[in-house]
Design a protein that fits this description.
Layout (H helix, E strand, L loop, with lengths): L1 E9 L3 H19 L2 E6 L4 H7 L5 H9 L2 E6 L14 H11 L2 E8 L13 H4 L4 E6 L9 E4 L2 E4 L5 H17 L3 E6 L5 H17 L4 E6 H10 L6 E4 L1 H12 L9 E6 L4 E5 L16 H13 L4 H16 L16 H15 L3 H4 L1
Parallel strand pairs: 1-2, 1-3, 3-12, 5-10, 8-9, 8-10
Antiparallel strand pairs: 4-5, 4-11, 6-7, 11-12
Bound molecules: nicotinamide-adenine-dinucleotide.
The site of nicotinamide-adenine-dinucleotide has 24 residues, from helix 4.
Length: 362
């Protein structure tokens, strides 16, 4: 298969983890007989420095024309003045909007070798395999805002169409997994949540009768995620609840450095990125954990290119590296972790040892 992948390294550790991830994708391409081309483009702080714009038009155009986009992270102290007119995060929001991405997928699957890195008791984490689907382009983050000397307001609004499309994505994922979807809302208080619940129930009844659907209030979900995470399969929720619950869920996996994400829309192009930020405290040292970026590549292969077998290979290779205790500092005891490059190399070795070689099939 031929595929063009736009790579947006961004700021801080972004360039380090994306370089590691691209080296893994190159290995997959070589071993499975694919032709992937990679083109790098600026986003975030570095794009402000070079072009005065956190999402230059050339970057957006390249992403729209690519088959998939791999992003590192944006932001850092150099651009963090809250009163600044131009900020790195605006680049990310504009990119999501420009690509029409409305569903953010965040899988959480604590690895057995890293259970001790989580603040949650290991016996609660064994077997946890959750996919959180967060609505990405609506709700209170995008509603009208007001502010005067007496107060401030943020409008939360959702259209039926906005709810339908993200809920359908979540139902489809649940159908491919264990057939169980939990929709999270605050229907006892919010009108938008009552609409969310009605629409979700209707879609479930009319289109996904084979998927078991439950509704849970967001405050209860915040507790259940920590007390009985194993019970959940796919969770779908609106933008702000999803923002908060996905950060909470990330603690189940022990380190931000292990968690990938995908942002999808109706179109072909998806955006794939680790959930962590630019980690300015460790940037430039070559010690960032690249596994989240590498696992984001597995999602890219699965969701944008339809290469399920290759995606499984990457996930198994990361499992193999973790089983072999190839840990960066965020996972290793006493700061004795390996470098970013060594961790990526361990994944490549796992691929070379255990993954299918296309040429041998011919
Ligand atoms: P962060 O995720 O960058 O870092 C939080 C902590 O986790 C730090 O101690 C960091 O060293 C550690 N960490 C993160 N990723 C790691 C990895 N791969 N390996 C090892 N350790 C890792 O969050 P922050 O410090 O709150 O934010 C730093 C900057 O990143 C800010 O400018 C913020 O706006 C930005 N940010 C960007 C994104 C994004 O690009 N999607 C997401 C979150 C934060």
């Amino acid at each position: 298969m031929r595929a063009e992948i736009a790579v947006l390294p961004g700021d801080g550790i972004g360039p380090e983890v994306t370089a590691a991830a691209v080296s893994v994708l190159r290995t997959v391409a070589r071993r499975h007989g694919h032709d992937f081309t990679f083109t790098e483009h600026d986003i975030g702080g570095i794009a402000i420095d070079r072009h005065g714009d956190p999402l230059p038009a050339a970057t957006l155009r390249a992403c729209q024309q690519a088959d998939a986009v791999l992003l590192g992270a944006v932001g850092g102290p150099k651009w963090s003045d809250p009163n600044a007119k131009i900020r790195p995060e605006q680049g990310l929001l504009a990119l999501r909007r420009g690509l029409g991405l409305f569903a953010n997928l965040r899988p959480v699957r604590p690895h057995p070798a890293a259970l001790n890195a989580s603040p949650i008791k290991p016996h609660l984490l064994t077997g946890v395999d959750i996919m959180v689907v967060r609505e990405l382009t609506g709700g209170i983050y995008f509603g009208d805002k007001t502010r005067d000397e007496r107060g401030a307001s943020d409008l939360c609004s959702y259209s039926v169409t906005e709810i339908e499309r993200v809920v359908r994505s979540a139902f489809r994922l649940a159908r491919q997994r264990r057939g169980y979807l939990v929709s999270v809302d605050k229907a006892n208080v919010l009108e938008t949540s009552r609409l969310w619940r009605d629409v979700t129930a209707r879609i479930g009844r009319e289109e996904f009768a084979d998927v078991k659907l439950e509704h849970v209030l967001v405050d209860a979900m915040a507790m259940h995620l920590l007390s009985r995470p194993r019970e959940y399969d796919v969770i779908v929720t609106e933008n702000m609840f999803g923002d908060i619950l996905t950060d909470e869920a990330s603690m189940l996996a022990g380190s931000l450095g292990l968690l990938p994400s995908a942002s999808l829309g109706d179109g072909r192009v998806g955006l794939y990125e680790p959930i962590h930020g630019s980690a300015p405290d460790i940037a430039g040292k070559g010690i960032a954990n690249p596994y989240a970026a590498i696992l984001s590549c597995a999602m890219l292969l699965r969701h944008s290119l339809g290469l399920d077998e290759e995606a499984d290979c990457i996930e198994r290779a990361v499992d193999g590296a973790l089983n072999a205790q190839v840990f960066t500092n965020d996972l290793a005891a006493g700061g004795r972790g390996v470098s970013t490059q060594a961790a990526a190399q361990a994944v490549i070795e796992q691929l070379n040892e255990h993954c299918y070689v296309a040429e041998l099939r011919d």
